Amino acid sequence: MANGMAGLSIGVSGLQASQNAINTTAHNLANVGTKGYVRQQVVFSDTAYLTLNVGANVTNQSGIGVDLSDVRRIRDYFLDKAYRQETGRQSFYENQKEAITEIEEIFGELEGVSFQEYMEDLWATIQEVAKDPASTVNKSALIESATSFIVRADAVRTGLVNYQNTLNTKIINMVDRINVLGDHIKVLNDKIAIVEAAGVESANDLRDERDNALDELSGLVKFTYEENRVGKVTISIEGVPFVTETGVNHMAAKQL
Fold first, then answer.
1. 231 dihedral zone (left: phi>0; alpha: psi -120 to 50; beta)
2. Using CA atoms, how far apart are residues 141 and 121, in angstroms rounded to an integer?
3. What confidence score (pLDDT) does residue 1 get?
């Protein structure tokens, strides 16, 4: 009778474990289009062993079932760190390239007459006047060249001021977004710690959401991060604490 009950227990545990595995598969399929979602995988383990008898050299035991040990995410911690580091580096060089291209366009280096040509033309007419100060032709050419130079210089100045204002707005929006992400990560930290406090389950979906926020943050600013023993992620930006275990130190933008 005991063997029969043990057999039923083993069968029931196997069915329950299989049901949990099917639920995980269904969860994976349901989140195929979810941004930042990482595929999950079940891990099985032995429930316990029933000791049948103990001999001089061997102990006879019988397993009494299978259990779902964990549902883990198929994600590499070290690849995440490398990806976020390279994303930050890529963002730095892309912003540099964008700024250089914009300034070159303002100065007319990419197409049309460049600002340098106006300067060279003005210098040439000044030299001609220096050679023959009494020449009316040279004086008229200098006036015309100087007028063109002033108009072009004013256009360049206006373009640079407008671009500086655009950059200021972009930086302010970026800082605001960084702070929003920091607040969001702090909230997710607290939720993950609560779910995983009992050591029964992993907050996989919440961790996916937090990793997605960290990925976005890596494209905005260079940072380092560590996960502590309770599952909370602490972040430092340029060596300054940003997200701590207890709060967020918001960034601010100041115009000099």
1. left
2. 10
3. 39
- Confidence (pLDDT) at 4: 60
Distance of CA 170 to the CA centre of its chain: 17
Cβ-based burial of 112 (10 A; exposed 0-12, middle 13-18, buried ≥19): exposed
Instruction: Give residues with Cβ within 8 angstroms of 56, minimum separation 6.
Output: none
pLDDT at 202: 87
SS3 47: coil
What is the 3-state composition of the chain as percent helix, strand, coil, each rounded to the nearest 5? 60, 15, 25
Q: Rounded CA gap, 123 and 116, in Å?
A: 11
Exposed e or buried b for every residue in 4-22, given b needs 16+ CB within 10 A? eeeeeebeebeeebeeebe
Q: Would the pLDDT of 44 be above 50?
A: yes
Question: Distance between CA atoms of 110 and 104, rounded to whole angstroms?
Answer: 6
For the chain, what is the radius of gyration of the CA atoms? 34
3-state class (DSSP) for residue 50: strand
Question: pLDDT at residue 6 above 90?
Answer: no
Query: What pLDDT, on the 0 to 100 scale, is given for residue 110?
Result: 67
